[in-house]
Amino acid sequence: MDKASQLPVPQNPVLKTKDQFRYIGKEGIARLDIPVKTDGRAIYGMDVKVPGMLMASIERCPVFGGKAQSFDATAAKASPASATSCRSATASPSIAPPTPGRRSKGRRALKVTWDEGAMAALTSSEISKQYAALAQQAGQVARNEGNAEQALVAAARSSRPFYQVAVPGARVHGADGTPPPTSCPTASTLWAPTQNPGGHQALAAKIAGVPVERVEVVTDAARAASAGAATRRAYTSGVGRAP
Description:
By secondary structure, the protein is α+β, with helices and mostly antiparallel strands. Helices cover 27% and strands 12% of the residues. Among the domains are: 53-119, no CATH class; 176-241, no CATH class.
């Protein structure tokens, strides 16, 4: 990309013809990431380890957009393993014992007082009603061919079924083991298996209060395993949750 940015911009570029294509439409061209994904060499976000890194379990507000007003970590710190508790940039408390089981147990022992915010009273039923109302509005036209409304009116029989299904969302995205920022050891270094390093860099700089040039985003360890989580890794919300 750096070298390409230095090249002169062609004024009247001519597109290649099909016989000039090197890769498009060609058979037998293997993806470079397939071997490492099939033989176990691929490094995913959850595999990354850096010196002194702690693995934290974050207690999230049960309402989207809410935040912690206060929390008491006394019971969590009384765990047999030493634990550290802290508040992240999004005001969510976390607990960091050495093993997954103890992290979960310690997090459940936290006593949190939540500010559930403006969405505290929002229910699934209300969301469904909003979506149903939006479905009655005119949408964007991607292709206009014929006259569907006229054909429906003239049809001897027609039906307008309404379908509604739950969307699992992030549950699916997390299945490949590449969560948002794996660790943030300093204010200037962010380890994140992300498809949006620029966005993560800008948000981390804002949270840390440093110029964006001082924030380094390390994605090389997860680059070979960058496919599979679709758009979830493009979001920057994980940066704010990093303790």
